[in-house]
Design a protein that fits this description.
This protein has 160 residues and is mainly alpha-helical. The protein is 73% helix and 6% strand. Strands 1-2 form a two-stranded antiparallel ribbon.
């Protein structure tokens, strides 16, 4: 009976831990999203424009039709966003090599360079500030804990 009670307590504790971890990840994700949005506001970009940037950064050469589908927005809405970004020199349309009637969308080199070189340091600044407030031991514990959680969640056996 004691063994069964101990197991029930362990299961309850594991569920509490899972809820806590999910809440922490959710709050950290919201924090990072706010950081992204603040950076976008500094550049005068809307959330929709940032979403377009993210999609084109990860999938350069996307068609307007595919971009519309991926972002779940009307074709005319995406077309207007692309027109505004193109006027600002952030996006360019290039003829599709396979079919010149269609165009493909790309971020300009300046935007790609900004995303590669400058944006990460802006987004990392709050994390760096938080890490600087920690002792070496605390930073190591955070890194180790996140590595263990990542490894365990992404292992083949965890999805069963």
């Amino acid at each position: 009976m004691q063994a069964r009670w101990a197991r029930l307590n362990q299961v309850a504790s594991e569920k509490d831990d899972a809820v806590f971890i999910r809440q922490v990840i959710k709050s950290l994700s919201k924090f990072m999203d706010r950081t992204w949005e603040l950076e976008a506001q500094k550049s005068g970009l809307t959330r929709a424009q940032v979403n377009v940037f993210q999609e084109l950064y990860h999938s350069p050469g996307t068609s307007l039709k595919d971009l519309s589908a991926k972002l779940g927005m009307a074709h005319s809405t995406i077309s207007g966003i692309i027109d505004r970004l193109e006027k600002k020199g952030y996006v360019e349309r290039r003829a599709d090599p396979a079919d010149k009637r269609f165009s493909r969308l790309y971020l300009t080199e300046a935007v790609n360079q900004y995303v590669d070189d400058e944006l990460p340091s802006s987004l990392d600044a709050p994390l760096i500030a938080a890490l600087q407030q920690m002792s070496d031991e605390e930073r190591m514990r955070v890194r180790d804990g996140l590595r263990i959680l990542q490894r365990t969640l992404l292992s083949e056996g965890s999805s069963e």
